[in-house]
Specification:
The structure holds two protein chains of two kinds. By secondary structure, chain A is mainly β. Chain A is built from no helices and twelve strands. In chain A, strands 2, 5, 6, 10, 11 and 12 form a six-stranded mixed beta sheet that branches. Chain B is built from no helices and eleven strands. The chains are: A mainly beta, B mainly beta.
């Protein structure tokens, strides 16, 4: 079975600073996909970034980037130049065989 | 944005009553999912569907049933609601191809008194 662990229930960061959210997962599969989703207070689930396990290059999307360490089964999210609108719950997700497995989330607060 | 509509958006009901939540999509995606979201648990899969009349159980399926008679609609039913089923319920859809993410509806907040 696949499991996803987010060990930081809550984090905070000063506006304009950089913050890294951790995610680890456990799987015996080789070809899978990883995602970070953001859930602001509006409750919408918004895709932030995705990573294919067969790609060594880390994915980036504007201020968001990942550090994907396949051997360590680690998939952290780095947010640069944090903005007030980044305040949200962040969920790490693992996908294999059209099933998704989510972590318990990290609540990020950006402080003005 | 993916065309996913959940109804109702909010519902309050009493223990023992039947409840049906509806998820409607306009994307013609093959896969549809129902999750519940609770503090400290993240999103947990209740049931999912991989086609019309094709469904399977997820991690927390006890007390829930689903039906999918059309590609665009996926219904979640609580036959006899209990207070432990108070939660926020999310529907999601995804295409049948690798690396495609799930797209989520806006959620239904269900309170069972």
């Amino acid at each position: 079975a696949q499991t996803v662990t987010q060990s930081q229930p809550e984090m905070s960061v000063q506006e304009a600073e950089t913050v890294t959210l951790s995610c680890t997962y456990d799987t015996s599969e080789n070809n899978y996909y990883l995602f970070w989703y953001k859930q602001p207070p509006s409750r919408q689930m918004i895709l932030v970034i995705r990573q294919e396990a067969y790609k060594q290059q880390n994915a980036t999307e504007n201020r968001f980037s990942v550090n994907f360490q396949k051997a360590a089964k680690s998939f952290s999210l780095k947010i640069s130049d944090s903005q007030l609108g980044d305040t949200a719950m962040y969920f790490c997700a693992f996908m294999w065989g059209n099933q998704f497995y989510f972590g318990t989330g990290t609540s990020l607060t950006v402080i003005p | 944005d993916a065309g996913i509509t959940q109804s109702p958006r909010h519902k309050v009901t009493e223990t023992g009553t039947p409840v049906t939540l509806r998820c409607h999509q306009t994307e013609n995606h093959r896969y549809m999912y129902w999750y519940r979201q609770d503090p400290g648990h993240g999103l947990r899969l209740i049931h999912y569907s991989y086609g019309v009349k094709d469904t399977d159980k997820g991690e927390v399926s006890d007390g829930y049933s689903v039906s999918r008679s059309k590609t665009e609609d996926f219904l979640l039913t609580l036959e006899s609601a209990t207070s432990s089923q108070t939660s926020v319920y999310f529907c999601a859809i995804s295409e049948d191809s690798p690396n495609q993410p799930q797209h989520f509806g806006d959620g239904t907040r269900l309170s069972i008194l």
